[in-house]
Specification:
The chain has 486 residues and is mainly beta. It contains 4 helices and 34 strands. It has 2 domains: 416 residues, YVTN repeat-like/Quinoprotein amine dehydrogenase (Methylamine Dehydrogenase, Chain H); 49 residues, no CATH class.
Length: 486
Amino acid sequence: MLAGTASGQPLVHPKVGETATSSDGKVKITLVAKKQNYSVAMKDSHESDIQSPKSVNISPDGKKYYVNSLEGGKTVVFEMGTNRKIKSISHNFTDESSKNLWAKPSGLFKWHKQWDKPNTFMGKPVEATFSHAGRYLWVPYYRRTYDNNAVEPSAMAIIDTRTDEIVKLMETGPLPKMVATSHDGKTLAVTHWGNNTVGLIDISSSNPNDWHYTTNLIVDYELPLNFGNRRVNRDTESGYCLRGTVFTPDDKYLIICCMGGSGGLAVIDVKNRKYMGRMLGMKHNVRHIIINNGYIYLSVNSSGYVQRIKLDDFMNAAKQMTNDKGIIENWENCKVGSGARTIEISPSGKYIFAACNNASRLCVVDTRTMKMIAEISVDSYPVGLDISNDGRYVLVTSQGRMKRGGGNAVNIYQIDYAEPEPVIKEPTPTDNDSTTVATTTENGGFSSQSIMKWLQTTTGQVTAGALAAVVIAAIAVPVSMKRRKK
């Protein structure tokens, strides 16, 4: 369904029930539900807390999903399957109400002026990542509402997913967008779109009071934020506009998309807390990055592509950089819809799903051929996306761009595969949850090394029954593990 806007650009609002089938007939996509705030008359799907949703994150146990409502200043929690709203978590704070939530200042982030009430603001939630086996959800804020040019330190909320309450607030650099958790669960990275910096946080403890920054690294140069009284468009005036962020599977390196400036992928040596340089050679305006089955996958926003290259080839070239620069070509390319934003991969690694903002489409790429095989309409301006651990559901958020315009929706798609997808299983959080979980072998089973590593993190609290369960799972239930990196 199309509707006009004040600018004359048509809006796309597909009806529940719309379907699409891949060109090979092996994947069927059905829009089975939505949560939207563009039509009050559509009572069954209307949700007033959906205000320009930026991202969506399905909990590792598959029971809930969290929608970051950017302009509403809320993280909205829904029950997976029924889509029943469980809670709206407000990001409105006063100095008084939040004083017991703040972590100790790190001393890494500079304030440009003295504010009377620096901790009285509404945070605009952007992306999110889970840690501690899904126990905590980390949500960075685009900016504090009084900071119009996003030059001051912003903040990040940590939500306990057992209660869906904010249990900790931490400072960040200016305009944080992406956060990522290492595979061993010990390090969290927050990339600052606002000034070309990346913060690393030690989260190895199960006690939130122990979490602390270890460093704030600079990608090439730290952008000076001396804008004065001039109103600035920080979507464009932000240096390299750091965005997609992912740890390599061994957690030795962090790779970050540079959406602006001269582009490329920034590479950080995590162990030595050192910026290595920027790799070029991919298309310009890379937005999102994932690593799967030995490949790096990128979404390219402006031209609407998904690209990939072998991880080993990329890292070998990155280690040979000179003067903080390198180049690697021979990327495989797949054209999808224009404005390719968030991408995610199915549990088998066979299919990439891409939210294409300008095209208002959800596109599917077959990774065996690197060809687009399917597409279906999405409410206008799709931006965020996540896939369930069984691959059966893909959730897509659509931005709002004008008063009661744009998508302002969460679209829920059911995916039916001719060839069954494996189910990715992850541990559920407990009071003494491990920060490390078992990884898998190439054929899908748990490796003995990863099992021992997991057992070592349980601080001697594994019972005989629990040990037996782990061993049985390792032998009899070959599954792959999925890391939450958003």
